[in-house]
Amino acid sequence: DNAILAQLGTADMRLPIQYALTWPERTAGPATPLDLLSCPSLTFASPDYEAFPCLRLALSAARTGGTATAILNGANEAAVARFLNREISFGQIAELVAAALERVSVRQAPTLADILEADRCAREVAMK
Predict the structure, then answer these.
(1) Among residues 112, 18, 56, 96, which one has the least CA distance to residue 104?
(2) Helices 112-127 & 92-103, crossing angle to 10 degrees?
(3) What is the rounded distance in angstroms from the CA atom of residue 114 to the CA atom of residue 123?
(4) Which residues contact 50 (CB under 8 A, 6 or more apart)?
(5) Sign of CA dihedral 72, 76, 54, 128
(6) What does the pLDDT look like over 13-52, one tens digit per residue?
(7) Nearest alpha-carbon partner for 32 in 61, 59, 11
(8) Could you tell me the pTM of the whole model?
């Protein structure tokens, strides 16, 4: 019907964690309810892939499927840790994630062992 359904809520990581733990059920949780009358207005713009290169990488990994998102996540976590330890610049995070996505083989219809191995390999690439 060309309708768009939106999931709106307050900025609180407890909500996605709750969904992960209770899916497919929807249960009451600890997050503060969103008051649409007092929240800022919503604005929309096309994504700026130059300013946010990791967004482009994430969308590509999602399209690829299989272990690509595990590779993306593992490399990102390792790269962010290196940034927080002042080993790399902020801009190098996307470079390391891209390198892991290029170097680590993606497996389609992965087992849990495949996912864990993809994560491990991606972290290894990002730590070098």
Answers:
(1) 96
(2) 130
(3) 14
(4) none
(5) negative
(6) 998 899 899 999 999 888 888 999 998 888 999 999 999 9
(7) 11
(8) 0.77
Residue in the structure block whose two tokens are 């892991």:
100
* Percentages (nearest 5) of helix, strand, coil residues in the chain: 50, 0, 50
Summarised one tens digit per residue, pLDDT across range 105-123 is 999 999 999 999 999 999 9
Residues 117, 113: Cα–Cα separation, whole Å: 6
User: Could you tell me where the beta strands, DSSP code E, fall in 67-108?
Assistant: none
The token pair that represents 62 in the structure block = 């999602």
- Which tokens is 5 given? 């359904």
| CA-based nearest residue to 11, from 43, 26, 33, 28 | 33
